[in-house]
Design goal:
The protein has 203 residues and is mainly α. The chain contains 8 helices and no strands. It is 88% helix and 0% strand. It starts with a helix and ends with a helix.
């Protein structure tokens, strides 16, 4: 019995670590600052609450039914990578051109869903990792790992206001423009990786 518990805890720890690395909430903080630079504290709170909740639901849905969903629509995870890359590229161009990643009429909930929840938090890498965790460590460990990682992400996102205060308005504005270029690079990388994987499996 003790060996079973130890083995479960070990597997859970591995699932949490690998998923946390892929979701990378610390590394994404500058990007989230860039995406929410024009918003007040209340709006950012709504956005991050929505993003973590939707991210949790999406990861579990894709973990259990992801392959079936892709099969129904006749698409692959690589097509998903390319689509996510194109979406991020459009967002990056909007930030660079107008300073606003989304339409002004869009609510914080919508922005929290797209692009923050998906594809930034729940991108192709996180979905693939969760599916592999499910196969390797079982249902309980996978669900707990998703819950713990997204909870940690939510806590980290709540500290973004502190980062804003430290940077000031001008600093946040500069970060937003610089990160737009990084977002564009990530977007291009998504597209290139998707194309490379697609060409690899078709040859």
């Amino acid at each position: 019995m003790t060996d079973v518990i130890v083995n479960f805890v070990f597997n859970l720890a591995k699932a949490i670590i690998v998923l946390f690395i892929i979701v990378d909430p610390f590394g994404n903080i500058p990007i989230f600052i860039g995406l929410t630079e024009n918003m007040n504290r209340t709006q950012r709170k709504k956005i991050f609450n929505t993003a973590t909740l939707i991210g949790f639901v999406l990861l579990l849905v894709f973990a259990f039914t992801g392959q079936e969903i892709f099969n129904i629509f006749g698409v692959s995870i690589f097509s998903f990578e390319i689509a996510g890359g194109i979406l991020l590229l459009i967002i990056a161009i909007r930030i660079l051109v107008s300073g606003n990643p989304t339409e002004k009429s869009e609510s914080p909930e919508i922005i929290g869903a797209v692009p923050i929840a998906m594809p930034l938090l729940v991108g192709p890498g996180a979905i693939t990792t969760t599916i592999l965790n499910l196969q390797a460590y079982g249902v309980v460990a996978t669900v707990l790992s998703v819950l713990i990682v997204l909870s940690l992400t939510w806590v980290i996102l709540r500290f973004i206001d502190t980062v804003y205060k430290f940077l000031g308005k001008t600093g946040a504005l500069i970060i937003a423009r610089v990160m737009a270029l990084i977002i564009a690079a990530i977007a291009v990388q998504y597209v290139l990786v998707g194309i490379t994987h697609f060409l690899t499996i078709t040859h």
